[in-house]
Amino acid sequence: MPLDIARRFVDLPRELKARYTRAQDYRAVHATEPGKRMIADLLAFCGLERDPFVPGAADETAYALGKQRVARRIAAMLNLDEREIMRLAGKAFDYPLYDTEENSK
């Protein structure tokens, strides 16, 4: 971290320092190949591309909205736009994460 940025960082309130550090951590994970696979898997699991509403099932709707909130947080921490989120979520299916009979065909 350059000295002038480091000095400004020292003067930030504790909450802003924590938020900045957390965002750096997300970016550090996303910068690695395993991290990219993990983020892609989480975004796909959270289902941002699907409608969360389940008619007549408030609990299922709330559950789906909660999963989508996690994806939005990840996306915000990585400064991803909607197109990039969908690209990463779709890419999750390109990674054979588990050695299953289906993956070995």
Question: What would you note in describing this structure?
Answer:
- The chain has helices spanning 3-11, 14-30, 33-46, 58-77, 82-91.
- It is mostly helical and 105 residues long.
- The protein has one domain (3-93).
- Helix 3 packs antiparallel against helix 4 (58-77) and helix 3 packs across helix 5 (82-91).
- The radius of gyration is 18 Å and the shape is flat.
- The N and C termini lie far apart (48 Å).
- The mean pLDDT is 83.
State the main characteristics.
mainly alpha, 105 residues, single chain, flat
Secondary-structure map:
Elements: H1 3-11, H2 14-30, H3 33-46, H4 58-77, H5 82-91
Total beta-strand segments: 0
Largest sheet composition: none
The average pLDDT score comes to 83
Low-pLDDT parts are none
Order of helices and strands: HHHHH
Radius of gyration: 18 Å
